[in-house]
Amino acid sequence: MSRFELNKSDDGKFNFSLKGDNGETLLVNSKPYFSKGSAMSDISSIRNNCEYEDRYERKEANGKYFFNLQAANHAVLGVSEEYPNEQMLEDAIALAKSQGTTGDIQASA
């Protein structure tokens, strides 16, 4: 089952990742959060934006492919893992679209 994993680091900051049904990390937060509420707010934004094709910014660097999921105002909500080819990138985007609306949050914080 897909889920968001919300964690608190040793320095008191929060971070999250979106895990797919297969356990693969699809997205991680783009910045550290100083409060759990701020992290939860961006998780909500991901849920609201992940289904829209135009919110995915595809990138390539050093022969690796990745994407940013953006809000309507182009603020980056999450960043993907790096993939060795474009097909794997597109497969990951398809998973993020279909599984990013999950209501499940596993919090260790």
From TrEMBL:
<dbReference type="InterPro" id="IPR010879">
    <property type="entry name" value="DUF1508"/>
</dbReference>
<comment type="similarity">
    <text>Belongs to the UPF0339 family. Duplicated subfamily.</text>
</comment>
<dbReference type="InterPro" id="IPR036913">
    <property type="entry name" value="YegP-like_sf"/>
</dbReference>
<feature type="domain" description="DUF1508">
    <location>
        <begin position="11"/>
        <end position="57"/>
    </location>
</feature>
<dbReference type="InterPro" id="IPR051141">
    <property type="entry name" value="UPF0339_domain"/>
</dbReference>
<feature type="domain" description="DUF1508">
    <location>
        <begin position="61"/>
        <end position="105"/>
    </location>
</feature>
<dbReference type="Pfam" id="PF07411">
    <property type="entry name" value="DUF1508"/>
</dbReference>
<protein>
    <submittedName>
        <fullName>YegP family protein</fullName>
    </submittedName>
</protein>
